[in-house]
Design a protein that fits this description.
The complex is a heterodimer.
Chain A (H helix, E strand, L loop, with lengths): L15 H17 L14 E6 L5 H12 L3 E6 L11 H9 L5 E6 L4 H8 L3 E7 L5 H15 L6 E5 L6 H12 L3 E5 L9 H5 L2 E3 L2 H7 L2 E4 L15 H8 L3 H5 L6 E3 L12 H4 L6 H19 L5
Parallel strand pairs in A: 1-2, 1-3, 3-4, 5-6, 5-8, 6-7, 8-9
Helix pairs in contact in A: 1-5, 1-12, 2-12, 5-6, 5-12
Chain B lengths: L1 E4 L1 H18 L6 E6 L2 H16 L7 E4 L28 E9 L3 H11 L6 E9 L12 E5 L7 E5 L2 E5 L2
Helix pairs in contact in B: 1-2
The chains are: A alpha/beta, B alpha/beta.
Chain lengths: ~300, ~170
């Protein structure tokens, strides 16, 4: 079994078999992470560069740890403090790094399509660690892995994605992935934060009513309001957003069932999630982070020989 | 495809190997049995249930080991891993590795690498059904052997549907 692609640019380009292969491989890597020696020699002849043109804590550490636990050599690049600040182009930067014999590139960029552009121009395997408002495929994969681990399956599972759907690459990757794997998806948020034709385009349900959505779903994936990507006023205040779409203990307790709470981080406590929800036993937020390393190990492992 | 061992011969051989293993490991507190994915697990299942039959009083500790992430030819082809399950500590235990066919010795070398990432066993032994002795590439030998067979380097010997078959190319 091999992936049908030599890059991970987005979930959009993956087949159902690709997704299943990544998730089942990740299960084996999760076992590796429980051992006394949490490391395998698989990628000891591979060098990986982590190019982060945009801020990140979880994703950058998660990739770096995944690479180290596969025995790969890694170098890290942050846009501030590099020649990018002196005006070097993306392609020049990457070509310079590749001439030092680097095999794989993990890239996060604020421009949607930056990884796709690189994939057309350079020979290394490219892994998208988040591009603008387009996709964040490894987050989609680790969310799916966590849902499957918690509920036992993806097919038929009812997943609500709540919050700023418009600006969220996490939402986009989740929608593509969950629909491909046969889950039911409802997106929920203020009308100004949900793209107009999303229902026809991606086959998801749309709801503007939080309580109804939570009553319907098995799993709620709650997103952060991406203030840094909004250049117009889409809701009046964070306080008002929180009153209409924030999830608190009282709301969860009023439901007729116990749902699973997820969040890709970073959490804005008191806005989209209250602390007594985020830290409750219904929340699998820290398991998502743990699973992220295993899922990224699977992606790196499966793409590691596709450039010869 | 040629049948080297019929299912009857195979089951006799399993009983014989189980007898030998039982004789040298009477106390199940100091030993664990580990099948190597995939052929070694198929064989391991048979051997462990045969030991269990001889020794119904004691539970036989049994796990499955996968070498996919430790293969030395990993750059040739990326393979999907099999399940790894060692539900016990191997520290200071005797580990009996079980594989269907011992050929170049590279699989066993990788299996030893995997084991050492789980702990420090007191001793590691190897039990195989078929030994293709003349093709060894590493200094590795088995402690329990069902049968030694003369084969060509390019032949494949496999455990298929409870028979051992030879596939010539």
């Amino acid at each position: 079994m091999q992936l049908s692609t030599r890059h991970l640019l987005g979930i959009k380009n993956l087949t159902k078999d690709d997704i299943s292969l990544i998730l089942s491989t990740a299960e084996q890597f999760k076992e590796v992470l429980q051992r006394p020696v949490k490391k395998v020699p698989s990628l000891r002849d591979v060098t990986i560069v982590n190019l982060f043109y945009e801020n990140s804590t979880r994703t950058r550490f998660s990739f770096e740890l995944a690479e180290k636990r596969l025995s790969a050599d890694t170098i890290n690049f942050a846009a501030s403090g590099s020649s990018a600040a002196k005006g070097e182009t993306l392609l020049d930067t990457v070509n310079n790094i590749l001439s030092m014999k680097v095999d794989m590139v993990v890239i996060r960029h604020s421009a949607s399509g930056a990884p796709h552009f690189l994939a057309q121009h350079i020979p290394a395997a490219i892994i998208n660690a988040g591009d603008g408002v387009n996709e964040h495929p490894t987050q989609g994969l680790l969310d799916a892995f966590s849902i499957k681990e918690k509920t036992g399956k993806l097919e038929g599972t009812k997943v609500a994605i709540i919050g700023d759907i418009m600006h969220s690459r996490v939402a986009q990757s989740n929608m593509y992935l969950l629909k491909k794997m046969g889950a039911e998806v409802t997106v929920c948020g203020p009308p100004t934060l949900i793209p107009k034709h999303i229902s026809q385009a991606l086959g998801v349900n749309v709801s503007y009513n939080l309580k109804e959505t939570l009553e319907w779903c098995d799993v709620a994936n709650v997103l952060r309001i991406q203030l840094e990507r909004q250049n117009q006023v889409l809701f009046s205040s964070l306080r008002e957003y929180s009153l209409a779409y924030g999830i608190n203990r009282k709301l969860l307790d009023s439901l007729h069932k116990e749902i699973v709470i997820m969040h890709p981080g970073p959490i804005n406590r008191g806005v989209e999630l209250d602390s007594d929800v985020a830290d409750s036993k219904q929340s699998i937020i820290l398991q998502q982070v743990e699973n992220g390393v295993a899922v990224r190990m699977a992606v790196l492992y499966l793409l590691s020989n596709r450039n010869n | 495809m040629q049948v080297l061992l019929s299912s009857q011969q195979l089951s006799d051989m399993v009983d014989q190997l189980a007898g030998q293993l039982h004789k040298s490991h009477r106390d199940m507190n100091d030993v664990v049995f580990v099948g190597i994915q995939q052929g070694g697990v198929v064989l391991g299942n048979e051997i462990v249930s045969a030991i269990q039959k001889i020794n119904p009083g004691q539970k036989v500790p049994y796990g499955q080991l996968d070498i996919t992430f430790y293969r030395d030819d990993i750059r040739k082809e990326i393979l999907a891993p099999d399940t790894m399950n060692l539900p016990f500590a191997i520290e200071n235990k005797t580990v009996v590795l079980i594989d269907d066919v011992l050929f170049t010795g590279r699989t066993i070398k990788a299996a030893l690498d995997v084991l050492l990432d789980y702990g420090r066993p007191a001793k590691v032994e190897l039990c195989v059904l078929v030994d293709r002795k003349e093709h060894r590439q590493f200094p590795i030998q088995a402690d329990y052997v069902g049968v030694t067979l003369k084969t060509n380097r390019t032949d494949k010997v496999k455990l298929v549907n409870k028979e051992v078959v030879l596939i010539t190319s």
